[in-house]
Amino acid sequence: MEIMKRPDSMARINNTELAEAFIEEQIAEIKAQVGSKKVLLALSGGVDSSVVAALLIKAIGKQLICVHVNHGLMRKGESEAVIDTFRGELDANLIYVDATDRFLDLLAGVSEPEKKRKIIGAEFINVFADEARKLQGVSYLAQGTIYPDILESIKQAEGKKAVKSHHNVGGLPEDLQFELVEPIKFLYKDEVRVVGEALGLPHAMVYRQPFPGPGLGVRCLGAITRDRLHALREADAILRDEFEISGLSEKVWQYFIAVPDIKSVGVKDESRYEGWPAIIRAVNTKDAMSATIEEIPYDILHKITYRITHEVEGINRVLLDLTPKPIGTIEWE
Ligand code: XMP
Q1: Which residues touch 207 (CB under 8 Å, ≥6 apart)?
Q2: CATH, domain range 16-206
Q3: Total Cβ atoms within 10 A of residue 237
Q4: Per-residue pLDDT tens for 63-117?
Q5: Distance from the CA of 212 to the center of ligand 1, in angstroms?
Q6: pTM for this structure?
Q7: Ligand 1 center from residue 329 Cα (angstroms)
Q8: Is 309 in contact with 318 (CB distance < 8 Å)?
Q9: Which of 73, 149, 166 to mutate to test the pocket of ligand 1 (most atoms within 8 A of CB)?
Q10: Tens of pLDDT along 262-303?
Q11: What CATH number does domain 219-320 carry, 3.30.300.10, 3.40.50.2000, 3.40.50.300, 3.30.1360.70?
């Protein structure tokens, strides 16, 4: 398969004027490509799929059908934010699927990271395909493919090994073959954000830190259990909250909590209290290929530690990961 390259003549989109010109151009292209047919989109709430959704809503309105699959591995409040923005503000045609049980049942007892990723990726396609089959007359599938994804495919086509398997909805089953609509496939991430702002998407959505497709699934280390996943989600929400309050969210590229499947002894209310540790990971990077550690002031670390150990059931320690990439990858799995 021939992989398309970004045209050399394409200017770097770094201001509103260029973004608006890009939007107008894409609206015309999308209209010309799909006419009056229906388009389906898996809307995760990440910046790429959100920008594609907003572009398509502008171009074809309710001909776009967005499907938001909650795999039960979203961060706290994330699915609700997708519904609020797209249904509430943009009046999108949005189908919300809570598939938590399907995913967590399949993942029960599975501890090997790549196996977890494969299960999540495959089940995501199954759930999405089930929704697609319920719909009539859909001809197109829109995807938030961006230029780094294409560059990664080129690298793999040249025989270089991927470090981790990422997933998107490309590999749908035979009975569901759609023509693709990929309006941002030649954009770099910074350009996607400029276009997102020009489309009027909320700042928090456009500048949302990257979140892996398998979500909290690769941060609830080892075999996922519902209680540890719940503790991870709550601890992660506290970390995000404190990073917002202190302004660190503007300085740190990606920050999150990972919770390993080990317990240590603690003490609470004068009794033995066994719990999991919450590991803080906060990194800065330009391209996610390498990453450095941002210094976090001790007063903020103390506050986060206090809140997590007092507010989250099952967590009795907070640890800070000081490992750059390489040698550590950004995610623990
Ligand atoms: P690593 O852990 O490889 O992560 O240093 C680099 C960046 O990629 C994200 N990441 C993923 N994104 N599916 C994704 O869509 C995945 O399976 C996945 N694994 C890692 C990670 O969050 C970081 O931004």
Answers
A1: 47, 193
A2: 3.40.50.620
A3: 18
A4: 999 999 999 999 999 999 999 999 999 999 999 999 999 999 999 999 999 999 9
A5: 5
A6: 0.92
A7: 8
A8: yes
A9: 166
A10: 999 999 999 999 999 999 999 999 888 999 998 999 999 999
A11: 3.30.300.10
